[in-house]
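Table 4 source record.
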Amino acid sequence: MTQESNMTRPTNFNDNAHPAGKAGDFDFLSGDWKIQHRQLKSSNPDVWDAFEGEATCWSILNGAASIEELRIPARDFSGMGLHLLNQEKQVWSDFWVNAKSGALLAPVVEGHFQDGQGVFVSEDLDGEQAMQVRGVWDNISPTTCRWQQATSLDGGKSWQPNWLMDWVRVA
């Protein structure tokens, strides 16, 4: 898999011109899910690891927050995603907690929904090199959705996908 292949090109994220986040943007995620993961195993863009997971998600605070409990039984892994709407900024913030550490992981990822996609971007470091991390929610329907993550070492000019999650709702 090469850069951008099998990855939707998200709407451009511009902090000064984003659409207003609103309560209920994450309501699509509420319920129980089976998830097919594909995670890049190395810097070689053709070496991927595939595995199954599951999640249970809830919308709370009248849609201004969403909780995602992710479980990967074969790897004895669980974690929690917390999506919070900053009402003042009208921007969503994503936080992640690995159950083994019990601590919120940095950096916070901020984003918004537009044209059927949720685009979330953060700044991070790869060693000492500046890096952007982008997560995209797309293919959202009543029974499916996809989350995909990519990184950029060139300020967002090109992206290397490193994790794809295809979600299917459990009946």
